[in-house]
Amino acid sequence: MSLKKKPVTGMKDISPREMEIRDYVMRLIKDTYASFGFSSIETPCVEHIENLSSKQGGENEKLIFKILKRGEKLRLEEAEKEADLVDSGLRYDLTVPLSRYYANNANDLSSPFKALQMGNVWRADRPQRGRFRQFMQCDIDILGEPTILAEIELILATSTLVGKLDFENFTIRINDRKILKAMAAYSGFPEESYDTVFIILDKMDKIGLDGVAEELEKEGFAKEAIDTYLELYKEVTPDLAGVAFLKEKLAGVLDAKVAEDMETIIASVEAVKTANFKIEFDPTLVRGMSYYTGPIFEISIDGFGGSVGGGGRYDEMIGRFTGNQTCACGFSIGFERIVMLLLEKDYQVPKAGEKAAFLLEKGISREKMLDAFKEAEALRAKGCQVSMNMMKKNKKFQKDQLAAEGYTEIREFFK
Question: What's the pLDDT at 309?
């Protein structure tokens, strides 16, 4: 049997060029989020299957890489159902592990707790551009803060990071699950059908108002409810005026404080943001995770079809671990998509120091080799990167390769 050279479907090898960008982005993430008071934590990549299948991960729960029991616990001949074979799985996001971590360590953590977590996650998804079955996620979360201070800080921290990567003209869209529900209630949809309505609404950017109307009709909803619902979307605007419109229009159905909080978040971010981006109220924004309970947000970058980040408030998840409700809000950036976009625009990582390459002739004496190592250490002490290489026969080609890799100084050492 011959061995396979290509990675498993949905996984990828990473080249030195991409790794340079990934390492730089990870350093920038840590430095930027640390400046906003976030502390790094790490959780295992393997989670209890009960936690992963707790009806909190939406569609992701259908994409779990499940892990068989090991050793004596794996009894294939006695198994009657999947639970007899499986006891854990690879995490599909970082939010469920964070909730478990907080529930297990809350007594030793500050309140509110501001967490930064970076790590690979796995989903048995259909691979496509910017989407893999193994990919890096980067989350910041604020646990234990009930006010919109959490939302404002998360948006400012994330937008500051994206701005530092030279992305301009990006947009952060924001909505609230309570506004979504109020619009559905005002229109006359039964409460038990909200999820169906929102799944169809989420397609608005692809199929438009007419497409949404057609799909709602196919589901058997009353024409009056559909017409009332879509009329709201025709009238509302993506700004503070749109929020004010809904606050008045939905009076008695929507708590006025929900709209006022939305206005405060948008106005505050606009007033103090440092990056060049727009923040827009988007009443069609749904986000698929069923655990969101309040404000939700996404980042989009001009020229790229999908989102490159998203998050929101999930005040009920941690309580399922502890029995006590804990306020929580988080924002995740699409690390893989951002790296992909940086590669596509040939992003050059800012250099911390010069890169020098030393070429040692084959057969060089021990004394000359030690001289080269001493020179290399002296340069490294000044902040330079130095690579030691044996000189090849085709020296010109070797030098050209090193130059392409960013080595600006090449020194030769002969025997």
Answer: 92
